[in-house]
Design brief:
CATH class of the largest domain: Mainly Alpha
Shape: globular
Structural class: mainly alpha
Radius of gyration: 18 Å
Helix content: 55-70%
Number of domains: 2
CATH topology of the largest domain: Hypothetical protein af1432
Number of helices: 12
Largest sheet: none
CATH architecture of the largest domain: Orthogonal Bundle
Strand content: under 5%
Number of strands: 0
Distance between the termini: 33 Å
Low-confidence stretches: none
Mean pLDDT: 93
Bound molecules: fe (ii) ion
Length: 253
């Protein structure tokens, strides 16, 4: 794994070096995020009794899951897939192009590439192998838990200048978009493209409670105080308060 971490760092370091002062924090954020998602995946694997090889596959996929973010940002200057390209697919293509994982056995590498290509899909396709499914689910949970960690400080006392991680959404006090609220009420994952303000983003992060695959991730969302923090940042209304107990019930399941 140490060798693969070196490969990842060597791949990302030119992006950091060639970035200007405004861009550098955004690139650094994605590098730090990759290592933290890797750590989360280790924690999830520890709670599952997976064959060692499969756990390794999932953890490599976690470390490399956002490889596409680096060429995406250099090419388009944004992390918004809707305005640029699918960063999951770009990540898999970039790994192949730069031969980053060519030392791994082909089957293992293909599973990793599949998990990376699928990590940002709204829903997983039904026809994938069990091995690919478990790796992708581990990456998706690990990613979600870390994305919330990264975003919460950005959402607190929002100032202009840090809109890249917030996807350009701004604070509109007291506002929430019905479609996003409705999704959370129905226990579904909110849709990125329906978000119109930061409160919608907070609701979307809460809705991830319904899309976590492993007990470790559900417990972590409570343990890290994500539910409480996001709830207190949302408008102080009955319809928001009513979301809390079904979310907690889901996370404790
Ligand atoms: Fe991603």
């Amino acid at each position: 794994m140490k060798h693969l971490k070196t490969i990842f760092s060597e791949f990302t370091s030119p992006y950091l070096q060639n970035a200007n002062d405004r861009e550098r924090p955004d690139i650094q954020l994605k590098i730090d995020h990759s290592f933290d998602v890797f750590k989360n995946s280790q924690n999830i694997c520890r709670t599952l009794s997976l064959p060692e090889r499969l756990a390794g596959t999932a953890q490599i996929a976690a470390l490399f899951h956002d490889t596409g973010r680096f060429p995406q940002y250099r090419e388009y200057g944004t992390f918004k897939d809707s305005e640029s390209c699918n960063h999951g697919v770009l990540g898999a293509r970039t790994i192949l192009k730069h031969k980053l994982l060519d030392k791994l056995p082909r089957k293992q590498r293909n599973t990793i590439l599949g998990a990376i290509a699928l990590h940002n899909r709204n829903k997983l396709p039904g026809f994938i192998s069990e091995e690919l499914r478990i790796c992708t689910e581990i990456v998706r949970d690990s990613d979600k838990i870390d994305i919330i960690k990264v975003l919460i400080p950005h959402m607190t006392g929002v100032q202009s200048g840090n809109e890249v991680p917030l996807m350009g959404l701004t604070e509109k006090p007291g506002e929430v978009t019905d479609a996003v609220l409705q999704a959370v009420k129905e226990g579904k994952q909110g849709a990125y493209h329906k978000m119109r303000c930061l409160n919608d983003f907070r609701l979307l992060l809460l809705s991830w409670a319904y899309d976590l695959n492993f007990e470790w991730s559900r417990k972590e969302m409570i343990k890290r105080g994500y539910v409480e923090t996001l709830m207190t940042q949302l408008p102080d209304t009955d319809q928001i308060h009513q979301l809390r107990s079904p979310i907690m019930e889901q996370l404790n399941s």
